[in-house]
Amino acid sequence: MKEGRKEGGREDGRKDGWMDKMPGLLIFSVLNVITSSIPYLCVEPLNLTKLRGSDAQFNATVQGSWKIMTWNVHGLLVLTVGFGGDVTSSSAQYSASFCRVDNSCVEFTIHNVSRSDSGPVVCTVQGDYGSRTAQLHVQGRTFNSRPFTEQGLDLHVECETSAWFPTPTISWTRNGQTVNSSLINTTSLASGDSFNSTSVLKFQAVTNTTVTCLVTIPTLTNPESSSVHLVVGKVLFFFFFFIGLFFFSPSKFYYYNAIYKKDQQQSTYVDMLNSGVSFLTGVWDKKTITNVII
Q1: Transmembrane region positions (predicted)?
Q2: How far apart are CA 8 and CA 244, in angstroms?
């Protein structure tokens, strides 16, 4: 009766040696050589959304030997790259550089993009590589922001977008927490082939608050955002100062409709309340806005 094959060895009892594994190693090596020799072209990202005035970058990775790469925008040849490093561009708006030392990766850049740049971006490598097409979406600058407006004890903050497509989704946060949609009023109007939107957040500022407007569309990986910080406090000194003006004035009454203390980036807002004076400072897009109303 024959003995069965021993575990980890051959039927004759001998262990497998490197000679026995040779066929498997040869097959793996041959497959690896064949795979690495197949021409391959990859362009990333395939969908890119950028704001008007910013730069758009696309990376093309080539596997195998290549000589000439071309980039087309809206069907027009705008840039040619040679493997040796020669770059020919139709204008200063387009540039390219290698992103790997072996020249297997090329970064193509469209500078200062505009709405007219939206559309297909095609990379082609001569030979058996073919071409790959990416899509560029250019949106208007995010925010034409307006400062706080005071209505009673309520504050309104407006967030505006211009020349976006499709219609953007606008949401708000206060101190990092999502704001209830019932406090938000958003309207959008078509303007040619894009949309202009205005979103208004209404709330009562009782304590210091950071408000953030977030704008997004399906092709954006992360929302565009803009924040404003509101500082709320009591300044009783101003209250007693203006009470003194009232009692010691010959006319017994002083009314200042608007007093503005301004420089290029700052003004002050003071609103008299029964318990004193609320001192509000709004910082929107790194600009401090001050209005003094007494």
Answers
A1: 21-41, 228-248
A2: 101
Query: How many structural domains is the chain composed of?
Result: 2
| Model pLDDT for residues 149-169, shown as the tens digit of each residue | 444 467 888 888 888 888 999
- Prior bond of 45 cis (ω within 30°): yes
Domain shared by 155 and 281, yes or no:
yes
Q: Tell me the pairing of strands 47-51 and 130-139.
A: parallel
Q: Find the Cα–Cα–Cα–Cα dihedral 25, 29, 34, 37, rounded to 10°.
A: 170
Distances in whole angstroms, Cα of residue 128 to Cα of each of 38, 66, 271: 9, 10, 72
pLDDT at 17: 56
Q: How far is CA 92 from the centre of its chain?
A: 24
Listed as own residue / partner, the contacts of 250-258 with beta carbons closer than 8 Å and 24 or more positions apart are 256/293, 256/294, 257/293, 258/291, 258/292, 258/293
Predicted confidence (pLDDT) at residue 228 exceeds the cutoff of 80: yes
Give the whole-angstrom CA distance, residue 86 versus residue 102. Answer: 15
Identify the domain boundary among 139, 168, 199. 139
- The H-or-E segment that residue 25 falls in is helix 18-37
The whole domain housing 47 covers 40-139
For 202, phi then psi, to 5°, come to -115, 130
- Domain shared by 190 and 226, yes or no: yes
Helices (H), 66-177: none
Nearest Cα residue to 178 out of 202, 211, 149, 209? 211
